[in-house]
């Protein structure tokens, strides 16, 4: 008999810990997205940790800016950024207030409200692909910069919240290098995922952008 996910909300203290504790502990948790069209619930299956000023792969490595200011806390808020001029990505802020760190939500399984996600992810070949990758996840949940800084604990019905869910057995939690991160942040094993879950996105190493070659005239 399959055990039903625990619907107890997580607390802010859950996020007020080191990012490398929070990130793997988010696997199997239930992310709830509430909007006028309805509610979507997603079981998190893949995440990445970013450790702020000590992490060359983090947006906050060189300090606070207007773009990354929400990463500096308080914990339990969202950091949403726009990338490649096309996509949004959703992060959950953690760690002590004033020290930037966050967890990128990379993938998950939508268990409630899949019909809403399908309307936004029309290119998905099946429901396992609805939130398979960080941009797909944000698109499926209708997340954009309007939700940047949203408080997971902001009242009885916040736009985004996290429930206890069903964490996986520890022997199914894997870690490895983060996807697409280059330079000094390339090799930290700070990507975490549930082994064998079909919603986990494929790993891709960083590929430096090539500048167009100058043709002789």
UniProtKB/TrEMBL annotation:
Residues 206-217 have a biased composition (Basic residues). Its EC number is 3.2.2.-. GO terms for molecular function: alkylbase DNA N-glycosylase activity; DNA binding. It is an enzyme of class 3 (hydrolase). GO terms for biological process: base-excision repair. Keywords: DNA damage, DNA repair, Hydrolase. Residues 160-217 are annotated as: Disordered. InterPro entries: Formyl_transferase-like_C_sf, MPG, MPG_sf. Belongs to the DNA glycosylase MPG family. This is Putative 3-methyladenine DNA glycosylase.
